[in-house]
Write a structure and sequence with these properties.
The protein has six helices and seven strands; from the N terminus they run αβαββαββαββαα. The protein has a five-stranded mixed beta barrel with strand order 1-3-2-4-5. A two-stranded antiparallel sheet has the order 6-7. The protein has a domain at 6-140: Gamma-glutamyl cyclotransferase-like (Hypothetical upf0131 protein ytfp), CATH 3.10.490.10. By secondary structure, the chain is of the alpha+beta class. The structure holds succinic acid (SIN).
């Protein structure tokens, strides 16, 4: 599959017939909200975990030296916490461009973290951007130390790859969310940055 997914997403999943769509963000979409939204709420999805296994040619690296960013990997019993945004379908013009490096939109059940309005509607359907193992930019597993070293040396048009990791880790901490994969790589990265 080509790693530019803009037209694929449009063809596979037209959304224009809907008034609004919930988008679930688990990576940069948690902390970098440079798009309009109607509402935002913490949410989680079950059966998926965050992994720094996707290459970034366009944001945190280059085609010659891709950075490492997140995708979701299926894992029985896992729970991934993130932010859900209610957006109008035209927002996907921008989002598909931003997430074009191998990510396909899929619908998945979303569960609200704080159902404080007691609406009794603890879940809805939402869209998540998923970069599966068959996209050309996929890098796959590596040790925490290898991933941290890769992140430490990478940079792209959106800035240093380390910023992606550090901002995400802080955003998860702000949400009281423990993500061992993210925090272990952050510890390794901070060790490397201190040594520099
Ligand atoms: C996401 O944040 O939900 C997708 C991956 C990314 O843009 O970091």
């Amino acid at each position: 599959m080509s790693h530019n997914t803009i037209s694929l997403n449009k063809q596979r999943q037209p959304l224009d017939h809907l008034d609004s769509v919930w988008l679930f963000g688990y990576g940069s979409l948690i902390y970098k909200t440079d798009f309009d939204y109607l509402d935002a709420k913490p949410a989680c999805i079950y059966g998926w975990q965050r992994r720094f296994w996707q290459g970034s040619h366009d944001h945190r690296g280059t085609p010659e030296a891709p950075g490492r960013v997140l995708t979701l990997i299926e894992a029985a019993g896992a729970r991934c916490v993130g932010m859900a945004y209610q957006v109008t379908p035209d927002t996907f013009e921008y989002l598909d461009h931003r997430e074009k490096n191998g990510y396909l939109r899929v619908f998945t059940p979303l569960h609200w973290l704080n159902d404080s309005d007691n609406s009794g509607q603890g879940e809805t359907e939402g869209v998540v951007y998923l970069a599966s193992a068959d996209n050309e930019a996929y890098l796959g597993p590596a040790s925490d130390a290898e991933i941290a070293a890769h992140i430490a040396r990478s940079r792209g048009p959106s800035g240093p790859n380390s910023e992606y990791l550090l901002k995400l880790a802080q955003a998860l901490r702000d949400m009281n969310e423990q993500d061992e994969h993210v925090f272990a790589i952050e510890r390794e990265l901070l060790r490397l940055l201190v040594r520099k």
